[in-house]
Amino acid sequence: MAWIDRHAVNTNRDASGRRETVLTQLARVVVALVFIKPYYDFRVVSIYEFLRVRFGERTKNGASAVFLITRALASGTRLYVARWKPYSRLKWPRFTRRP
Predict the structure, then answer these.
(1) Residue with the larger pLDDT of the pair 71 and 34
(2) Is the distance from CB of 43 to CB of 51 less than 8 angstroms?
(3) Residue 46 carries which DSSP code?
(4) If you ran DSSP here, which 8-state letter would residue 36 be given?
(5) How many CB atoms lie within 10 A of CB 38?
(6) Which of 5, 26, 40, 49 could be 44's S-S partner, Cβ–Cβ 3.0 to 4.6 Å?
(7) For the chain, percent helix, then strand, then coil, each to nearest 5?
(8) 91: left (phi > 0), else alpha (psi -120 to 50), else beta?
(9) Are the C-beta atoms of residues 61 and 49 closer than 8 Å to each other?
(10) Rounded CA gap, 81 and 78, in Å?
(11) What is the pLDDT of residue 1?
């Protein structure tokens, strides 16, 4: 749905819309040449398989670890932000001191 909305914005007749559409099409070609062609050349279907074939098992495992760590941090951040939202809405004190 976001693509449809974005596409509707880009089909207007002003110069910025045309420029953005041209740049989007150019980016698609670059992505196809830079990323998809090596997948076919190495006969792989995922980035982790490509990393294993191209750079070795150690690089693949390192990339997997970085991905898992960053996803865990992102999920933790989302939970933390969602936890404090009711307090700011309801004007409750966030921290209380215990005797």
Answers:
(1) 71
(2) no
(3) S
(4) I
(5) 13
(6) 49
(7) 80, 0, 20
(8) left
(9) no
(10) 5
(11) 46
